[in-house]
Design a protein that fits this description.
The complex is a heterodimer of chains A (339) and B (789).
Chain A (H helix, E strand, L loop, with lengths): L1 H17 L3 H12 L4 H7 L8 H38 L18 H15 L3 E2 L5 E3 H4 L10 H6 L8 E3 L5 H9 L4 E10 L11 E11 L4 H16 L5 E8 L2 E10 L16 E10 L1 H6 L8 E8 H9 L6 H4 L2 H4 L3
Helix pairs in contact in A: 1-4, 2-4, 5-11
Chain B lengths: L1 E3 H5 L8 H11 L2 E7 L5 E13 L7 E6 L6 E5 L9 E10 L5 E2 L2 E3 L2 E3 L1 E3 L33 H4 L5 E6 L10 H12 L22 E4 L7 E8 L8 H9 L7 H13 L3 E5 L7 E6 L5 E3 L5 E3 L5 E4 L4 E4 L3 E2 L12 E7 L2 H10 L5 H6 L8 H14 L4 E2 L4 E4 L6 E4 L2 H8 L5 H10 L3 E3 L2 E4 L9 H12 L19 H15 L3 E2 L5 E2 L2 H5 L24 E2 L4 H13 L5 E11 L8 E11 L5 H14 L5 E4 L5 E11 L2 E9 L1 H6 L7 E6 H7 L15 E10 L4 H12 L3 E10 L8 E10 L8 H16 L4 E2 L2
Parallel strand pairs in B: 12-15, 27-30
Antiparallel strand pairs in B: 1-11, 2-11, 3-4, 3-6, 4-5, 6-7, 6-10, 8-9, 13-21, 13-22, 13-23, 14-21, 15-18, 16-17, 18-19, 19-20, 24-26, 25-26, 28-29, 30-31, 31-35, 32-33, 33-34, 34-35, 36-38, 36-39, 37-38
Classes of the chains: A alpha+beta (339), B alpha+beta (789).
């Protein structure tokens, strides 16, 4: 019987080593270890053995069983690895083929820049207030110290709805509406659409966007106006941007100024973009006029304030080097997808 | 306004370059946008003398000239001009020279003979007969100027001024003149302003009949001055006048007209000259026109006058529209012998409204409209007479007639250095402030500032603060940051708007911005019925054109316009959205309603109704809302592919495929899908707060149901029955197959649902599941929906 067991062990070792698939191994397992397998056959003959021989043969038979089991497991692992390697080899892909995903949409460049600006001012403690686009003459002109027949009315070229109603020419209207309702301290910006009678061309549009700002409190000074706007430029354009303030005239502010930034294209030496001036005007500003305060029932003896207004389209055009304002309103997807 | 640097220099020493001057003036408040050197293109053109001239041996019409340019060797030049004589002084463009228009001149051979340059006409120097009336139009410019051989032509004829282009603001009418700008320049450069007091030689001639001036409307005409000039001798103006007029862009006409223009430019005070011959009864009345009166103005247009127009009239009829334009018949002619020169002050508002009413803007009205200094009239008139006498163009017949009805109260403003420093945030000394104000011609009376009469923009302390700031230098004021603030935040509604675009961008849409006005025809293009309420729009009284004359009541046409544009630009697909305003009229006394709407529009091969609906569903889900749609026709849409959108049983929008006829109207040969949502309504129902729900502990069970129903039975009805009957156990119901064809009866369709059932407190048992499914099937049978066999 010992001889029989040795033969089984040898034969099994040979056959398992030569097996090529998991099924083959399973067949071999049944052949050697199954209920009707070789090893079982041998064990069935145990009864015939003497009491001395029985434990010895039993032990040996168990060793053979363990040996075969280990052989099978080892072989199984080997085959599994080979099959997996084969599969992985077969599954190689061209990783440079294009990805598949619904494309993200885009914000309009005007919205993107507007939000950037809003965030800068929110950071400086401003709130955002909006107002109607179709306005009363009073809020657009009268309250802003531009009475009927004022020369500044001519320059505005306003779209009228009725004698007293118009399409606002600036978002300064919101200044007045805010001051009528709220009491100082006031710190707001007011973005929105404005309208002017201008034929459409590369740099003009009858509809465009403006951001108006207003600060009213005790002891607000012209130096504060400068500080706030310089901070805005620093945050929006970066610390290297240089600004200058020039005297100007607006009926609703006194003193008034325009703020220029050094041309980012030529750094001030003069080029086509800045029309040789080395500077680009980006906003108008000034100390709120006494009459505007009085129109809003705010006491100019106690409070002072400043206001500013900037045109969004121009800023966006400079930022992205867009030469023609019409692109904003044509909305060609090839344009929109760039932002 | 364009100003001559040479002229400015007569009043103030400017010893810096044009660039530096432009910079300095810009920073003190009179912005110089551009400046241009006259004749800057001209190079290498010099004065020469014709020393020999003969016919070209090989050409009938050409001449051979030898030109003396002061050098030993004479230059041979061939010319076609016939107006040359020996000894004539002419502009010579040498070999390698450049003309006014940039043309380069090189030597060459003309019919076998060498020509070493070119003799120039006026045009080739960029000039016209108005600049040099003694020259000929089509020939060589023969100079009658004091000049030297070889001299640069620009210096020889005074074509060397710098033209400064000022961008003036409307609060400074005093600066619309050479003197006004010179005063500012003097203050800016800290130089002396050289005033000029005109000198007149007045002789009172007894025998000359005086004119009577009667100002009826003293409010609209507070000052009226006139001078009568006799022995008028009309002729060309001398060079110093022509040169300056040219630099400032004014055409030279004759000495009298030129002088009125010259004084207007110099003093900023418009003058007007009438021929005394045409003044009936030697009488001038300043009055409002009587309805029915007419005048033919200098531009030969007959104008009907109204009672709002201030006019200058003689005994019989109007002779000028005050401050705007003179009448044709009384204008200065070649043979005029006696003139009346008018220098008056007319009220700005009146001139502006008259100028507007007659659509007539002149240099004169342009200045009056801004409000002129009434104290300037006499001075300007004296200056004109001085020039007339200087040019021997006439003689003053008798002393000036001066009607001045102004109250000559000086404007005084309290001087408060502390207030100014507090307002500006500066620490400027009182002394420095005084120095600045004195430079600006302000006087001091104790603690009061006396403002010069021409500065009608200085009325209160803030105005004075601006003067201090601008001459102290805006950029010399140290910046500060105002403290004390309560924090800045987006409001919830503003965040809502941001979320809308963030969500749609994540869903692959591009944001657009469109105009809020359009043509009334847009409503026809989207097939809006004639009586549709949306056609009632806010109208613009003075639109740019018919196609932009109403404010939109729906943003749909704006979206279609953009889709059309993209389609025509051959973009294969477009997925767009706009957060648009729509404007609906209210009662006349109220502002129109401005409604916020979301419009999304799509075309392209990946798009169909359900792709659009999927986007809408995701969008509404983002705001915590379930999208319910109900088929409902709408004029602009495909009648079988359109639905209203509801949330919480409230209609908030529409979704559908655009009607093929509408697509055709917009030139789109593709299917277009649109949805629009009323954002004000959405805002009311949107859910912003999120709540955590525990993850399920027990397993889910899936059951498939294949159902057969009538072809036109909406999916949604089946879904609702399933939902209702399954109750809380139903986690999800999904449609995984829809079949119409041979396997089912005609007029029927098969829908395959997959139900996910789950209980939150136990593992579902088989009989529980079966009970639910049976309940559903039983209920479905009531609406003729059966299990597929």
């Amino acid at each position: 019987m010992q001889k029989q067991l040795k033969e089984i062990r040898m034969l099994a070792e040979k056959e398992i080593a030569g097996s090529k698939s998991e099924q083959e191994i399973e067949t071999l397992r049944i052949k050697y270890l199954g209920k009707k397998g070789c090893l079982t056959d041998v064990l069935k003959q145990m009864a015939k053995l003497s009491a001395e021989e029985r434990p010895l043969i039993g032990k040996m038979a168990n060793q053979v069983r363990t040996f075969i089991e280990e052989m099978i497991e080892k072989r199984n692992r080997g085959i599994k690895k080979i099959t997996q390697e084969e599969r992985l080899r077969a599954e190689k892909i061209d990783v440079t083929l294009p990805g598949k995903c619904r494309k993200l949409g885009t914000k309009h460049p005007i919205t993107t820049v507007l939000e950037e600006i809003e965030e800068v001012f929110i950071g400086m403690g401003f709130n955002i207030v909006e107002g109607p686009e179709i306005e009363l003459d009073y809020y657009n002109f009268e309250a802003l110290n531009i009475p009927k027949n004022h020369p500044a009315r001519d320059e505005k070229d306003t779209f009228y709805i009725t004698d007293t109603m118009l399409l606002r020419t600036e978002t300064s209207t919101v200044q007045v509406r805010t001051m009528e309702k709220a009491s100082p301290p006031i710190r707001i910006i007011s973005p929105g659409r404005v309208y002017r009678v201008d034929e459409v061309d590369a740099t003009h549009s009858p509809i465009f966007h403006q951001i108006e700002g207003l600060v009213v409190d005790k002891n607000v000074t012209f130096a504060d106006l400068k500080g706030t706007l310089e901070k805005f430029v620093e945050k929006f354009y970066g610390a290297s941007a240089a600004v200058r303030f020039r005297p100007h005239y607006f009926p609703f502010t006194e003193p008034s100024a325009e703020m220029d930034i050094r041309c980012f294209h030529c750094q001030g030496s003069g080029c086509k973009i800045c029309k040789g001036e080395g500077w680009i005007e980006i906003l108008g500003c000034g100390m709120v006029h006494r009459k505007v305060f009085e129109n809003c029932k705010i006491n100019p003896q106690i409070y002072s304030g400043f206001a500013f207004a900037l045109g969004l389209e121009r800023l966006v055009m400079y930022k992205y080097s867009i030469k023609d304002i019409r692109f904003f309103y044509e909305n060609d997807v090839r344009f929109l997808k760039q932002f | 306004m364009i100003l001559s640097m040479k002229w400015l220099k007569e009043f103030v020493d400017i010893d810096i370059s044009a660039k530096e001057f432009a910079e300095a003036m810009t920073m003190s408040g009179l912005k110089i946008g551009k400046y241009e050197l006259e004749g800057q293109n001209i190079e290498n053109v010099i004065v020469g003398r014709v020393s020999f001239i003969e016919k070209h041996p090989n050409a009938e019409r050409l001449f051979v000239c030898l030109i003396d340019t002061g050098k030993e060797e004479k230059i041979q030049i061939i010319t076609g001009a016939k107006n040359l004589l020996i000894e004539d002084l002419v502009p010579v463009a040498l070999h390698g020279s450049t003309l006014a228009d940039g043309t380069k001149i090189k030597k060459g051979k003309i019919r076998g003979l060498e020509s070493n340059g070119m003799l120039c006409s006026l045009g080739e120097l960029g000039l016209t007969l108005n600049d040099f009336p003694y020259a000929v139009e089509d020939g060589i410019f023969v100079l009658q100027e004091e000049c030297a051989l070889g001299q640069d032509i620009r210096d020889a004829i005074g074509l060397n001024d710098v033209k400064l282009e000022f961008e003036l603001t409307s609060n400074r009418p005093d600066c619309f003149s050479v003197i006004g700008v010179a005063r500012e320049a003097a203050a800016t450069l800290k130089k002396e302003f050289k005033t000029h007091e005109p000198v007149l030689h007045i002789k009172n001639e007894e025998n000359f009949k005086q004119i009577d001036v009667c100002v009826e409307d003293k409010e609209l005409c507070p000052v009226y001055c006139a001078a009568v000039v006799k022995d008028v001798n009309i002729g060309p103006s001398p060079r110093f006048i022509r040169e300056k007029l040219r630099a400032m862009g004014v055409r030279s006409i004759n000495n009298i007209v030129d002088i009125t223009n010259y004084v207007m430019l110099e003093y900023g005070q418009p003058l007007h000259a009438f021929d005394l011959n045409f003044l009936k009864e030697n009488e001038i009345t300043v009055r409002r026109a009587v309805p029915g009166e007419q005048i033919i103005t200098l531009d030969k247009i007959k104008r009907n006058l109204s009672k709002h127009d201030l006019i200058i009239a003689d005994k019989l009829q109007p002779i000028a529209i005050a401050g705007v334009m003179g009448g044709k018949f009384s204008g200065v002619q070649e043979d005029t012998k006696c003139i009346v020169l008018e220098s008056a002050n007319f009220k700005a508002d009146s001139v502006r409204s008259t100028s507007r009413a007659h659509a007539l803007r002149t240099e004169s009205s342009y200045r009056f409209e801004k409000g002129l200094d009434s104290q300037n009239c006499v001075l300007a008139l004296k200056r004109a007479i001085e020039l007339i006498e200087h040019l021997n163009a006439g003689k003053l017949a008798y002393p000036l007639i001066i009607k001045d009805y102004t109250e000559k109260a000086e404007v005084k403003i309290k001087f408060c250095p502390d207030w100014i420093n507090n307002f500006l945030g500066t620490k400027i000394s009182e002394e420095k402030m005084r120095e600045i104000l004195e430079r600006l011609d302000c006087k001091f009376e104790k603690d009061r500032i006396v403002v010069p009469s021409y500065r009608n923009d200085l009325r209160e302390m803030a105005d004075i603060a601006e003067e201090i700031a601008r001459f102290y230098g805006y950029n010399n004021i140290s910046s500060t940051f105002h403290s004390g603030c309560s924090g800045g935040f987006y409001t919830k509604r503003q965040k809502f708007n941001r979320k809308i675009s963030d969500c749609l961008i994540a869903l692959g849409l591009n944001e657009i911005i469109t105009f809020s006005f359009f043509s009334p025809k847009s409503y026809d293009k989207i097939l809006l019925p004639e009586n549709d309420g949306l056609r009632n729009s806010v109208k613009i009284l003075n639109p740019l054109g018919e196609d932009s004359c109403i404010m939109r009541t729906t943003a749909l046409p704006s979206m279609l316009e953009v889709l059309s544009k993209n389609y025509n630009n051959q973009n294969s697909e477009a997925n767009l959205f706009e957060i648009a305003k729509e404007y609906t009229p209210c009662d006349v006394n109220y502002l129109p309603n401005e409604k916020n709407t979301l419009v999304a529009g799509f075309y392209g091969k990946y798009m169909d109704f359900f792709a659009a609906k999927g986007i809408l569903e995701e969008f509404l889900k983002y705001f915590g809302l379930e999208c319910e749609v109900k088929a409902e026709a709408s004029p602009s849409f495909h009648p079988g592919r359109c639905a209203n959108v509801q949330v919480k049983l409230k209609k908030i929008g529409v979704i559908g495929e655009i009607h093929p006829e509408v697509c055709e109207n917009y030139g789109i040969d593709d299917r277009v899908y649109v949805f629009s949502i009323d954002l004000d309504a959405l805002w009311e129902d949107a859910v912003f707060d999120k709540f955590y729900r525990e993850l399920p502990k027990f397993p889910a069970v899936k059951r498939d149901l294949a159902l057969v129903c009538d072809l036109d039975m909406p999916f949604d009805e089946l879904r609702k029955v399933i939902k209702r009957k399954a109750g809380d156990l139903l986690e999800e119901v999904e449609l995984f197959d829809l079949y119409v064809g041979d396997q089912v009866l005609d007029g029927k369709k098969s829908l395959a649902f997959r139900l996910t059932l789950r209980s939150s407190n136990s593992t579902l048992k088989e009989d529980e599941i079966n009970r639910v499914v049976e309940k559903i099937i039983k209920e479905l049978k009531k609406i003729d929906v059966v299990l597929r066999e």
